[in-house]
């Protein structure tokens, strides 16, 4: 989980610098977080 947080922070900084709308950045990061977690869970099942 902490790896995901670091990854998300990295992207947040990058996207904030290129001036994307804050709401868009937050939505995209949430989506990515959920996607990463679901991929990890499916790998654990195998």
Amount of helix: over 70%
Give unreliable regions as ranges.
none
> Helix and strand succession?
HH
Report how far apart the termini are: 19 Å
Biggest sheet descriptor? none
Q: What is the gyration radius calculated from CA atoms? A: 12 Å
What does this structure look like?
There is one protein chain. The protein is mostly helical and 46 residues long. The chain has a domain at 1-8 and 23-46. Helix content is 87%, strand content 0%. The chain contains two helices and no strands. The model has no long low-confidence stretch (mean pLDDT 84).
In short:
It is built from two helices and no strands. The chain is mostly helical and 46 residues long.
List the helices and strands and how they pair.
Layout: H1 2-17, H2 22-45
What are the key terms here?
mainly alpha; 46 residues; elongated
């Amino acid at each position: 989980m902490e790896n995901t947080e670091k990854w998300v922070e990295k992207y947040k900084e990058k996207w904030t610098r290129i001036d994307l709308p804050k709401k868009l950045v937050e939505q995209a990061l949430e989506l990515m977080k959920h996607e990463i977690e679901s991929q990890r869970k499916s790998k654990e099942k195998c």
